[in-house]
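Section 5.1 Outputs to date
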Amino acid sequence: MEIDWSKENILKLNNEIKYYENNAFEFDECTDEEVYAIENTISSIREKIEPWLTSIFQSEHFSLLLGTGFTIGLTQLAEVKSQAMGRIEFTEFKDEIKTWAEETAIDLGRGSANIEDDFRTAIELLQGLKILKAEEVISLESEINLKLNEFINAIIKTENEFAKSAKYIDALSVLKSFLISFSSRAASRERTNIFTTNYDRFIEFGLDSAGILTIDRFIGKIKPVFRTTKLELDYHYNPPGIRGEPRYVEGVIKYIKLHGSVDWKFENDSIVKLPLNFGVSADESQYLIPKEPKDFSVIYPNSSKGIDTAYFPYSELFRDFSSAVCRPNSVIVTFGYGFGDSHINRVIKDMLTIPSTHLVIISFDNASGRIEKFIEEINSAQITLIIGKYLASIKPLVENYLPKAAIDRIQDRMFKNLEKRKVVTPPKTNEFHVKAEDNE
């Protein structure tokens, strides 16, 4: 099935493709008739997207993958500048690092290089210089630590400015609604798995603010420690008057940060989570951030470690990702992910070799052609596309198209009674109703 990638907003549900121009959604300087037409357009799209996503969200195995676009969209709502993944320049071996980073990014299918490619190249070069016992080792290592400190501080600054923004309340409300939509699952279903490639803590902050319980690999309260052995833990409760029949607590998700986090640190052959508050200032954070982040911060695959630890904890995290999605009747939704990580793409492709699996791509744009290229290599029948500024930006997505918070058995029963009596037809709303039998 051919897709016209030149279109501004693309909607592919099942085997149907629709295109929408941006001016079909723009309210600025509109007459009353034009406003009415736009509202009708949004309503007609909602009638297509919301029921489809409602069904998908209740799949047997369900995962959400969030990329940099998630943070960018959220900070734009708060009118805050996000820490971008653009290029950085080194003083030592400037041209060599830049050229090699660009070449390897193309080889990996990423297209344009970004800050991770620059750091990876600089660290690999540093190891070679250490082998040669070159005199440039000290200066290059110092510069890598300096650039990493700047990168970490920029992320913390974004969090701080978001928390102080005049639009903070509105942006936080959108964030909570977004996460609640994905975390609301019938009790008979497996927990939602949320994966992210981001280093910031917007997701954790949103989950805490929404009262969503999180299961990850860390144990402990004062200084949580990364657990290398994965245990299938969960939250249950005993209903009053019933013994020996524990039930799942609602609003629980499993959470994995695939590329690490600004508040993770290597310490005594373990990984600990720093007590770094969301919204803390850069000055306050300096007391906790490692002085030499190249060796102690867990924010990218650090090749300076020995072979046994070079991919720790990333090997464990990606095993979690693979085991969560590569199963029959599994669905993964990507939001703000640009398909620039070959290791993640490989797992998703493996998942889609199972006929009962499905991929939902929600993206602001075509990610410099990477989404188009990825789709060419897989079965289009297993793909849902929601692409474009007015379909996939986080605010219109939350307000118009995502299923709303889920488990409302009373309302579900009310609609069934009304249908039996033929008194009224259930209203066409963006409510997310779960069948009562799923909760029993």
